Structures are given as C-alpha cells and as structure tokens.
Amino acid sequence: MTTVRKILRDYGIRPKKSLGQSFLEDKNVINKILVISDIREDDTVVEIGAGVGLMTELVAQRANKVVALDIDPRMIAILRERLAAYDHVDIIQADVLEYDFSLVSTESASQKIKVIGNIPYNISSQILFQLLAYRHCISSMILMFQKELADRLIAHPGTKDYGIPTVFVSMFTECSREMVVPRGCFYPQPEITSAVMKMIVRRDPLIDIKDHQLFSKIVKTAFSKRRKTLLNNLRSSHVLGYSVVDIMSSLQNAGIEGNRRAETLTAEELGRLSNVLLSKEKS
Predict the structure, then answer these.
(1) For position 177, which CATH number holds?
(2) Distance between CA 5 and CA 17 in Å, rounded?
(3) What is the mean pLDDT of residues 70-94?
(4) Contacts for 204 with CB less than 8 Å, ≥ 6 apart
(5) Which neighbouring-strand residues pair with 174?
(6) Any residues with CB less than 8 A from the CB of 237 and at least 6 apart, and which?
(7) Would you tell me which of 111, 160, 182, 280 could form a disulfide with 106, CB atoms 3.0–4.6 Å apart?
(8) Residue 168 in domain
C-alpha cells in the first residue's frame, strides 16, 4: 500500500518543519476533497503544495491539465518520478507567494483554473490573499486551513472571529466549510485541527468597487485597532490621507454611523464607504 510515510522513507526524506510540511495521508479525506472539488475532464487544476503526489495523481486521472506546485526540491524529484506517466502534469518548483497564476494556460481563453491544496498553516493567510489577487483567472479554491482561520473566513459580523480575511473572502467568493479534518489524518501530525474550505469566486463582487486599493486600505485601517470606533481608526490613519471632515461626510453619505466598530460592518458597507470616499479629494 502506497502511503506518505512509505514514500518518504523510500526516498530517505524527513518532513521539514520550517516549510510547514504536514502531509495529508488519509485516503478517505483525499477522496472527499476530490468530490468537493468537482473536477471535470476539461478542467485545469493547480495544486498548491503537491508533496509526494498522492492527491496529484488522482487529480491527474480526472483533469485535462494539472499544475503541481511545491517549493521543496526534494518533493519535486519525487513528483517527477512518481508522475512520469502523466504527460498533462506540469511539475513546478515555486514559492506560491511569488507564483503568477495568470500564466497557467487553459483550453480556452475564457476558462478559469481550479485551485486545490493543503497549504502551510504558517503562511496560509498570505496564500489566501495571493489567490484573491488572482481571482480573475480562478473559478474555485478548495483549500485546507487551520480550523481557527477557517472559522474566521465564515464568521458573521459582530463576532470575535469576524475580521479582515472575512471581509475580503465574502466580498469576492461564496465560502463554505466542507469538512473538519482531525490531526491524525496527517503525517507528521500537526498540533491543530484542520478544515477544508470551498470558495467559489463570484462573477462580480458583492458591490462594484471603484478602487480596489482604496477598499483594501479602508478595510485594514478599520480593523487596525478593534477596540476603537470606525471613525477614530479612519481619522487617525495617515495611510488614507483624507481630512476628518471628508471622512465624516463620507460615513454619513454611506449611511454608516462613525461610532460603530469595524467588526459590525458588512463587506458591502465597507465597499460602499470606499466608493463614497473615492469621490473626495485627499487633503
């Protein structure tokens, strides 16, 4: 029986903690992820952190094209040997935070890629924001997160888990938690519980954002000090560059009370504020 442990042992390799390597080895969970991913025969799939290729091989049996990414050259060597029979699998050594997802070619120019992956928990937030930046070429993302972060992605306004990741994910995707994965399903076993999240990229954001950079700055500024009110955070920020008068009038025009805290605002409200503030001249 082919297992992660056996493959690593055969190659004389030990997982690197510095790379956050914790390989999913439970085949029932792998098969469930494949079902959730709904991979079709004309799909192009990018797998983040392909590891020893247990999931990669199963994806290759379903998809038209597979791009297997891994930063570890040791894993690349394993993947190239184990998947040598699959001509439609591209194996690439790359840092996912620097990878250009828009370069992945598909059968048609209008087709978008699907992304799957058991991503390193120490950089999972950065990877998430990287993927959202490439949402124009991605149709869906099935990703394994630390359960703590997964809970934040689907949190409701007014709760302690609601924050910056929640706003961006809800603005640009339809997000759901598909399953919780116990620690015993991985090798080596992590110290935390995991969860598989499904994010379907929206055809259009919840609101038509006129300036995405400004929206991003407003969201991050609004949540910069959670105990402070929205108005206090916005007017004390040097990043935005707007006068207190303009900020106050923009809040009023957007129908938002300045004494609210950021965690009570929906993604739509923050988007609306961004659009209203954009019409003001910076001081």
Answers:
(1) 3.40.50.150
(2) 16
(3) 97
(4) none
(5) 200
(6) 221, 224
(7) 111
(8) yes
